[in-house]
Amino acid sequence: MSDWGIALIAAGSAIAGSVVTGWYTRGAGLRQAAAARHAGDRQADALLESVRMTLRAESANREFALRRQIYAEFLGAAEARILTERNGRGQADDDVLLQRALSGVLLEGPPDAAAAAQHLVDCLRRHERPDELKRAKLAFVSVAQECCRSR
């Protein structure tokens, strides 16, 4: 066999080897790209879920803060009316503030807190005895604390 023949066989073998190696390398590259794309999708999904969880937690915290503020405003308005019942001196708008605060509790709920607030207001409107007013106020405070605790 001549040198040219050997050179052609060697060159053909090198080309064939390059084609086969290139084919397998291309396949491996495509598999790696698909795996990277899949991993990126999973990472994006995890990030989106993390953002959703954070938004839900922030929403729950805002809801809790609003409910707590409404309960505190009602309690303040009720306390002002209780003091008026005790000493007979109060502000002209105490009843309006109490009704507005009661409306907030009725709107915000839950039903147990709304019922306790309504009972306290009813006791104030009926000019109940101080011990009954205190019981009604403590009942509302207890329900409000439970509502704020069970978030």
Beta strand count: 0
What are the segments in which pLDDT stays under 50 over at least 5 consecutive residues? none
Largest sheet at a glance?
Answer: none
Broad structural category: mainly alpha
Summarize model confidence as the mean pLDDT.
Answer: 85
* SS strand fraction: under 5%
Share in helix: over 70%
* Cα radius of gyration in angstroms: 38 Å
By DSSP (H or I, 4+ residues per run), the number of helices equals: 4
What is the domain tally? 1
Tell me, what's the shape?
Answer: rod-shaped
State the end-to-end CA separation: 90 Å
Q: From N to C, what is the helix and strand string?
A: HHHH
Transmembrane segments: 6-24
Keywords: Membrane, Transmembrane, Transmembrane helix
What does this structure look like?
- The protein has one domain.
- By secondary structure, the protein is mainly alpha-helical.
- The chain starts with a helix and ends with a helix.
- It contains 4 helices and no strands.
- The mean pLDDT is 85.
